Amino acid sequence: MKALVLAAGLGKRMRPLTFTRPKFLLPVAGKPALDRVLELLAGTFDEVGMVVGYGREQIMERYGSGSGLGLRITYFHQKELLGTAQAVSLARDWVGGEDFLVINGDTLTDKGSLRSLLELHREKRGEQGFAGCLATYEVEEASQYGVVFLEGNRVVGVKEKPRAPEVRTVNAGVYTFTPEIFWAIERTERSERGEYEITTSLQLLLQEGRRLYASPLSFWADLGRPWDLLVANEHFLRRQKGEVRGKIEFGVHIEENVYVGEGTRIRSGSYIEGPTYIGRNCDIGPNCYIRPCTYIGDHVRIGHGVEIKNSIVMDGTHIAHLSYVGDSVIGSGCNLGAGTTIANLRLDEAEVEMEVEGNRVGTGRRKLGTIIADNVKTGVNCMINPGVKIGPNSAIGPGAVVYEDVPPGQILLTRPAVERRSWGGGAAAGTSEE
Fold first, then answer.
1. pLDDT digits (tens, 9 = 90+) for 345-358
2. Burial 8-18 (b: 16+ CB within 10 A, else e)
3. Which domain holds residue 363?
4. N or C: less crowded end of the chain, CB within 10 Å?
């Protein structure tokens, strides 16, 4: 059986992070998300097809032929991003009339769940009318996903992003198909979004009396929105093996499950809790506090008195002294000025909201800071409120308080009102007498 990875999307919901890179290359606990997907497939599959589109040069340059992962990768260019069904259709000749697996390039799961899906496919393969299996997951809010209706483990209906779903079982973006899926794709019409949806193809199979079965996942992270990176990051950090390869000065406290890369220096007085990942050639401290579930990339500078909690800090970023970063994603090449404070809790402690594709949506998180894209600068003593996004190549002036999203390539400046009055402080002026 071959595996097909869908990695062509624009990642609009992940903006501003995806203005400068495809979402499949965003870091998750020290590795791009697509690394995690390919590592999941390695050892089970030899041949992998990858549908690429936006950012395909970056993806193809990183993975090449796949030999570094023990895979043989064949690329398919989706020139127009017309949906998942159309993406799958590009690999029809490559599949060659065999059963195959399809997985979204931004879908993270575990080996055990993948094995269960493949075992179910083999178990049901001999049934008359069998057309495939799909992975499912139970969520609290299903309206943002494709909902799956079941009778036992048999799929009886699929509906894409219903307004008021009656069930919590959603399509997790991992499938096994027989070649009959291509028959359904040929008959799939464009959705209201103007795309050829694989969920429409599944519904056509069901209408024709074909059998589809569901296999629940034990773990699932769908990297659809920026805060999903924090969920996936925490999951993989908690499963990493701690190791210290850098230089640790006297007076540093490092707890269990902390990884420190080669060439990194942890200065005196720093306190680091696990799970935490710190990359290569970083300069950390002195007297900083790194709290659990934090990922710090390569060539990062964390200054004196900085506190970072449950955040992702990408390569080449500098966070100057006396700053606070909580529950946030910070892009590459950023420079946060001294005293930058990122708030991660609303004053009323309500759910943090964020704008996604022009709509204000709930994140399901009580604590969430900011999403900062690549090459952003902040001046000293600026403050960024919960749920704010800052686009790439932007700047926030000193002392500014950021309440709203900042578009790419913009600078935000504030000037306080200044009042001057005469001051009769004789003593201060050196004129007092006794």
1. 998 999 999 998 88
2. bbebebbbbbb
3. 229-412
4. C
